[in-house]
């Protein structure tokens, strides 16, 4: 009585799932510098280098601030 409608609906579901790709998903491609960095350091083989990069960035920024607020006044003469 109502089996034909259910069979058609089920066939649509089956045909949808048959069209989906099988196997592992392809590796993500880097589309910009941030995604490249993420793929390199947080991808299949994660490493501790981002910690070193953050420390180096803080050191560079700290020196820049120290120069701007204090060391530039000593460029031509001492205290």
Span between termini = 99 Å
* Global Rg: 29 Å
The major β-sheet equals: none
* Overall average pLDDT: 87
User: β content, as a range?
Assistant: under 5%
Helix/sheet category:
mainly alpha
GO molecular function: proton-transporting ATP synthase activity, rotational mechanism
Transmembrane segments: 51-69
InterPro entries: ATP_synth_F0_fsu_mt_fun
Protein name: Mitochondrial F1F0 ATP synthase subunit F
Q: What would you note in describing this structure?
A:
By secondary structure, this protein is mostly helical. It has a domain at 47-79. It contains three helices and no strands. The model has no long low-confidence stretch (mean pLDDT 87).
List the keywords.
rod-shaped, 0% strand, 3 helices, 61% helix, 79 residues, mainly alpha
Describe the secondary structure blueprint for this structure.
Elements: H1 3-19, H2 33-42, H3 49-69
Quick summary of this structure?
By secondary structure, this protein is mainly α. It contains 3 helices and no strands.
């Amino acid at each position: 009585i109502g089996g034909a409608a259910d069979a058609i609906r089920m066939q649509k579901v089956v045909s949808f799932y048959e069209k989906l790709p099988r196997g592992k998903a392809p590796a993500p491609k880097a589309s910009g510098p941030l995604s490249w960095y993420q793929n390199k350091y947080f991808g299949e083989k994660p490493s501790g280098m981002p910690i070193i990069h953050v420390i180096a960035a803080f050191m560079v920024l700290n020196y820049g601030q120290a120069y701007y607020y204090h060391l530039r006044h000593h460029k031509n003469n001492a205290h």
